[in-house]
């Protein structure tokens, strides 16, 4: 029997590794003041939801259109409005759980059912708050043995340049996508398809190359910038000063989900892996919306990246009596109870399971090959 596309079974020892990582991350977030919450798997369908176009939808018995949870940030901010309308702010929350998308192409994976662990810092907007999330993100990965580097950008920088050039609609989307993927051919095709001026192309190619240490911020400041792009650059400079500019890589062409993020965005990368293990940024704060920022760790990808750092499974022994169960557990072993009195069955099971010792009372017995 096959599984639906984009889904998978999780087997030992991967399940144990994932639970270990989830618990370590949650404990680390708690040390920084992030309290755990849970939100429903089912939500009312909303055309304004950032993932509405790719969410799984169903109709309940009352005729309401529901959607399976497709991302956490919207659900957590709605929870904050319902349950913590008066704060206290800053409100620090953490979550862990599964998400579902009909077609998943995010940088955190290509599964249609996947798990995220993350945090949201709500109700405040400041360089110090943005730097806090960078610190928590980097230290969380370090806590599970993963050395990563952070890449930081601001979608408002590229969008400000396009806005100043009068670029809207499909052309705007095309150029944002090409810039974020650093695809020179796609950028050229977009400029040509929409008959955009060569001067804009030269500027965008320069921005696409603005990647690296703090020097790229100085290079960006020398460009002809309008008010919005200048403000985005000032935001990055303030965050860098609060966090430590030498600890970051800056990507001025980073412009994913430019209509969603209202401030900086960041990703965490691990050497030898092309896709990020973590991503987040600042959102909201427009009009009546609550300002917030957060990040999510893709647990499937982190498990893959962190596998060599994870503790080995504890040795399992076959316990032939209850005294053996107790003795094995005092030694820190996993005790599997014998279900039969037939030694031949013990031998066959031990061989199939990879068990090399049995225990009776306080006596450990080697399994005969």
From TrEMBL:
<comment type="pathway">
    <text>Amino-acid biosynthesis; L-histidine biosynthesis; L-histidine from 5-phospho-alpha-D-ribose 1-diphosphate: step 1/9.</text>
</comment>
<keyword id="KW-0368">Histidine biosynthesis</keyword>
<dbReference type="GO" id="GO:0006427">
    <property type="term" value="P:histidyl-tRNA aminoacylation"/>
</dbReference>
<comment type="similarity">
    <text>Belongs to the class-II aminoacyl-tRNA synthetase family. HisZ subfamily.</text>
</comment>
<keyword id="KW-0963">Cytoplasm</keyword>
<feature type="binding site">
    <location>
        <position position="256"/>
    </location>
    <ligand>
        <name>L-histidine</name>
    </ligand>
</feature>
<protein>
    <recommendedName>
        <fullName>ATP phosphoribosyltransferase regulatory subunit</fullName>
    </recommendedName>
</protein>
<comment type="function">
    <text>Required for the first step of histidine biosynthesis. May allow the feedback regulation of ATP phosphoribosyltransferase activity by histidine.</text>
</comment>
<keyword id="KW-0328">Glycosyltransferase</keyword>
<dbReference type="InterPro" id="IPR041715">
    <property type="entry name" value="HisRS-like_core"/>
</dbReference>
<dbReference type="InterPro" id="IPR045864">
    <property type="entry name" value="aa-tRNA-synth_II/BPL/LPL"/>
</dbReference>
<feature type="binding site">
    <location>
        <begin position="260"/>
        <end position="261"/>
    </location>
    <ligand>
        <name>L-histidine</name>
    </ligand>
</feature>
<dbReference type="GO" id="GO:0016757">
    <property type="term" value="F:glycosyltransferase activity"/>
</dbReference>
<keyword id="KW-0028">Amino-acid biosynthesis</keyword>
<dbReference type="InterPro" id="IPR004517">
    <property type="entry name" value="HisZ"/>
</dbReference>
<dbReference type="InterPro" id="IPR004516">
    <property type="entry name" value="HisRS/HisZ"/>
</dbReference>
<feature type="binding site">
    <location>
        <position position="116"/>
    </location>
    <ligand>
        <name>L-histidine</name>
    </ligand>
</feature>
<feature type="binding site">
    <location>
        <position position="120"/>
    </location>
    <ligand>
        <name>L-histidine</name>
    </ligand>
</feature>
<feature type="binding site">
    <location>
        <begin position="71"/>
        <end position="73"/>
    </location>
    <ligand>
        <name>L-histidine</name>
    </ligand>
</feature>
<feature type="domain" description="Class II Histidinyl-tRNA synthetase (HisRS)-like catalytic core">
    <location>
        <begin position="6"/>
        <end position="302"/>
    </location>
</feature>
<feature type="binding site">
    <location>
        <position position="102"/>
    </location>
    <ligand>
        <name>L-histidine</name>
    </ligand>
</feature>
<dbReference type="Pfam" id="PF13393">
    <property type="entry name" value="tRNA-synt_His"/>
</dbReference>
<dbReference type="GO" id="GO:0005737">
    <property type="term" value="C:cytoplasm"/>
</dbReference>
<keyword id="KW-0808">Transferase</keyword>
<dbReference type="GO" id="GO:0000105">
    <property type="term" value="P:L-histidine biosynthetic process"/>
</dbReference>
<dbReference type="GO" id="GO:0004821">
    <property type="term" value="F:histidine-tRNA ligase activity"/>
</dbReference>
<comment type="subunit">
    <text>Heteromultimer composed of HisG and HisZ subunits.</text>
</comment>
